[in-house]
Design goal:
Elements: H1 3-15, E1 33-41, E2 44-52, E3 62-68, H2 79-91, E4 97-101, H3 111-127, E5 130-140, H4 142-153, E6 160-164, E7 177-182, H5 190-202, E8 207-212, H6 224-253
Parallel strand pairs: 3-4, 3-5, 5-6, 6-7, 7-8
Antiparallel strand pairs: 1-2, 2-4
Helix pairs in contact: 1-3, 1-4, 2-6, 3-4
Length: 254
C-alpha cells in the first residue's frame, strides 16, 4: 500500500474510540520483575507482558517503552519471549517500565493493532508513574513495522521510536527514529532499509541508521548490544535534549 494511504488509514484509526479506557490499568500492580497481565477491553481481553524496574520510589516518574514482538501465530503472552530475549536486556539501562502487548490484529501496522497500542500506552501513562515526555515505542521485524505505524498515528504520544529489522513504511510522524538492521538479513534486505532511511533523512526527518554487522533476521537475541546502543541514544540524544529545551522554554517564560 502506498505510504500516503497507510498514513491515512492510521490517522483514521487513531480518531476512533480506543479499545481500552483510561482507567483500564489502574489496578495493575507494578511489581518489580516480569509479569503477565490481562485486562478487559471493549473488544475482548488485552494481554501484555510487563517488565517493571527495581527501585521505583514514591513521586518519581520513569520512562515507558512499548515493545512490539515479531510475527508468528500469537498465543497468550506471545510477547514475553521477545521481551525476555531482546527488549528487556536491550532497554535495561533506561530504568523504564516496558510493556510487550500481544498483537490483536493480523499485523502490527493494521488499524486494529495500532488502536490497541495507542490505547494501552495512554492507559499506562494515565495509571502509572510515567514521565509522559519519555514514552517510546520499539519493535522487531513485524513489530518494527508497527513501530513506524504507531509513531505516525500518535506522534503526540510517543517521543521517539526504535525500529529493528524492518524498513520504513511511514515517516514516523516526524519523531526521532533509530533504525537497526542486520547486514545479512535474508528476509528484508538491509540495503532497502538503508535507502529508505536516507530518503527520509533527505526530507529532513530525524532518523538514524545503525547497521548490525553480520546479523541475520532469525537471530533477534543477537540484537541486544545494538538495542543497548539505541537506548543510550534515546536517553542522551532525545530525552536529554528535549528536557533541556523544556528548561529553556520555562526560563524564557519567567
Amino acid at each position: 500500500m502506498p505510504r500516503v494511504l497507510v498514513l491515512l488509514a492510521l490517522l483514521l484509526a487513531a480518531c476512533d474510540a480506543g479499545p481500552l479506557g483510561p482507567a483500564a490499568l489502574a489496578d495493575v500492580p507494578l511489581t518489580p520483575g516480569v509479569s503477565r497481565v490481562e485486562v478487559e477491553g471493549d473488544d475482548g481481553p488485552v494481554r501484555f507482558t510487563l517488565s517493571v524496574p527495581d527501585g521505583l520510589t514514591a513521586g518519581a516518574r520513569v520512562p515507558l517503552v512499548v515493545a512490539l514482538h515479531w510475527s508468528g501465530d500469537v498465543t497468550p503472552y506471545y510477547g514475553e519471549t521477545y521481551l525476555r530475549a531482546l527488549a528487556a536486556p536491550g532497554l535495561a539501562g533506561l530504568g523504564a517500565i516496558v510493556v510487550a502487548p500481544d498483537r490483536p490484529g493480523r499485523e502490527w501496522d493494521s488499524p486494529e493493532s495500532v488502536a490497541v497500542v495507542r490505547a494501552l500506552t495512554e492507559a499506562a501513562v494515565a495509571a502509572w508513574p510515567v514521565d509522559r515526555r519519555r514514552v517510546a515505542v520499539t519493535g522487531y521485524s513485524q513489530g518494527g513495522f508497527g513501530t513506524w505505524s504507531a509513531l505516525a498515528a500518535a506522534p503526540d504520544l510517543f517521543s521517539a521510536g526504535i525500529a529493528m529489522a524492518a524498513y520504513p513504511i511511514t515517516d514516523g510522524g516526524g519523531r526521532p527514529v533509530y533504525v537497526i538492521h542486520g547486514t545479512r538479513d535474508e528476509l528484508y534486505a538491509a540495503f532497502d532499509t538503508e535507502r529508505a532511511v536516507a530518503r527520509l533523512a533527505a526530507e529532513g526527518k530525524p532518523v538514524v541508521y545503525a547497521p548490525a554487522e553480520g546479523l541475520t533476521h532469525t537471530e533477534p537475541a543477537a540484537y541486544v548490544p545494538a538495542l543497548q546502543d539505541a537506548a543510550r541514544w534515546l536517553a542522551d540524544e532525545v530525552w536529554s535534549l528535549q528536557r533541556r529545551e523544556v528548561l529553556v522554554d520555562e526560563r524564557d517564560g519567567d
